[in-house]
Amino acid sequence: MGGRRQHFAGHAVFITGASSGIGAALAREFAREGGDVALAAEIEKTGRRAVVIPCDVTRDGDLERAADRARAAFGKLDVVVANAGFGVSGMLETLSLDDYRRQLETNVFGVLRTVYATLEYLKKTRGRLVLIGSVSGHVGVPGSSAYSMSKFAVHGLAASLGHELAPYGVAVTLISPGFVESEIRQVDNRGVWRAEAPRRPIPPSMVMATPRAARQIVGAVAGRRREVVITGFGKTAVFFQRHLPGLLAVIIRRFGIKGRREPR
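and the corresponding structure tokens:
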């Protein structure tokens, strides 16, 4: 590494949903920063240790088994990233209660299962808990009510846990990405991956490359930041929601801004 300081040298990192997208990029970036990573196969190529553990965050018991295996392999857990998730899209009248349940089961209860399975390990290392939220956890638009509900819930969870876990020395970081390259647009409302994604109605210049986003996220975790919004567009949207919500509502309606379409 040419003498460059590695922020996570000797740290054990546990990531859910690390097989693709932001999760895979985070796994590579944590390894580049010296971490040993659980749930990412390609990390061994970097010379860091890796443990590949099949895990379904919607299934009770899976995360406890995965966390125990990672702890057995590395001897500890210093960083836990609750990243696994997908997006249910569509207007309210086109969705069913089952669609909403499916969304919350993965994006909310999957996060809670991750926290419960790893919390005692993090307390022992005074480690870092990272919750992957979204700008959609700050700003709601038509066609994304299910996804926004789930990410607003993660936002609230991070805020509360930040206070609850501070006495134990555990830092909680909420990551709120805007438009970042990922496979989420190729996953339908039932969580099934589709070969073709719907056309993205935004300029490519507004989409951040996944490796760049991963570097920013890992930097925020290293600094034990409370929350970081990723992408300039995301920062602008969150600023307007916090300080000029009425104007943002006018913009959303005036320009017909909507959530992504479901892939078919």
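(Above: one complete record from the training split.) The radius of gyration is 18 Å.
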